[in-house]
Amino acid sequence: MFRIGQKEIDAVAKAIQTKSLFKVNDRLKITETAEAEMREMFQTKHAMLMTSGHAALTSALIGMGIGPGDEVIVPAYTYISSAMAVVAAGAIPIIAEVDETLTISPDDILKKLSKHTKAIIPVHIQGFPCNMDAIRKIAKEHALFVLEDACQADGGAYKGKRLGTLGDAGALSFNYFKIITAGEGGALLTDDKDIFERALIYHDSSAVAYFGDQLKDFSTDLFCGNEYRTNEISSAILRAQLTQLDDILQDLRKNKKYVMDALADVCSFIPSNDILGDCGTTIAFSFDSAEKADRFSKANGIHGVVPINTDKHVYRNWTPILEKKGAFHPLMDPFKMEANRDIVPNYTKDMCPKTLDLLSKAVYVSVDPDWSVTEMDALIRNAKKALESLK
Questions:
Q1: 297: left (phi over 0), alpha (psi -120 to 50) or beta
Q2: Domain edges within the chain
């Protein structure tokens, strides 16, 4: 979806000319500035750039104190990284169904709760906002953390508030396939000082004590962590990308609405928890059979994708999770840890039948923010022709 060009080239050139590419420096301080700009844009107290969305998810879970003996509920439809972040923290992912919006089902969250549940990870897949009112209500009633995976929903919103800022923490991604990109990268958002401090230490445990005053006013003691530190080149690209984010979202939403309005009388769409906050990256058609969805996706000029076929985004293809291979060394594997002995579930490929059914009856058509009216009208004609052929 991203737009990239001379502005990003100039930003990188300026960073290189300083010869000060480490995150902490006394020159341009690009990362520091980018994080300040993100705090303003997302209206959050803390924003931390790092190497990926997975790094942000894992760091957030560590910041929440999640670990062995804990269960974290994740949707059956999300990239495998969401579940792997739980395993990286030493905890056990509990897989819940999605509902008709193709986001995590609040009803199934309630069914999957146990005395070991410590957090919920709602995933705003394809930029579709989750039902955050229902999820936050469940979390409040059961004293659970909410970690929003907004890695496919940079800048999206739910009832006027940016995705990634409605829970205790949120994760964004800026890799090549996202709405804005730094080639690779991610961010953690939170208002919670404790989560922020622990996540900062964990994501860069080899440097936070030695460079700058990153630990100023911290109450958290240092502990061993990982190495997810970003750099000034990535941050320079991201700063330029952030200035384009809302324009990209506006054009995506406008183009999605144009096509959907034109087809509203002749087809059904996946319902939305907040169509205004939806990122607009994807038009999601709904059919009454998998056979019709498959035929429509392959029709001339549609270029559709049936989400059941999106490999590692569907739980039944999460081979390391389903086979309970949480680490190379068995003593580091959460699925084999004594603290988790009584909570490791019996994962099966058919354990979430509703999710599989819904995903097999949907078709995605990606939206281009730079579509012309001529291009959209051609898509509309092709869609009407394909839909007519299904009758």
A1: alpha
A2: 6-242
Alpha-carbon gap, residue 348 to 256, rounded angstroms: 36
| Beta strands 117-120 and 71-75, pairing class | parallel
DSSP states of 237-293 as a string?
HHHHHHHHHHHHHHHHHHHHHHHHHHHTTT-EE---S-TTTS--SEEEEE-SSHHHH
Question: What number of other Cβ atoms are within 10 A of residue 322's Cβ?
Answer: 16
Residue 273 backbone dihedrals phi, psi, to 5 degrees: -75, -20
Tens-digit pLDDT profile for residues 229-260 = 999 999 999 999 999 999 999 999 999 999 99
Would the pTM count as exceeding 0.85?
A: yes
CATH topology of domain 6-242: Aspartate Aminotransferase; domain 2 (3.40.640)
Q: How many other CB atoms are found less than 10 A from the CB of residue 172?
A: 29
291-304: b or e for each residue (b if 16 or more CB lie within 10 Å)? ebbbbbbebeebeb
Q: By CB neighbour count within 10 A (0-12 exposed, 13-18 middle, 19+ buried), where does 158 fall? A: buried
Residues 138 and 106: beta-carbon distance below 8 Å: yes
State the catalytic residues.
178
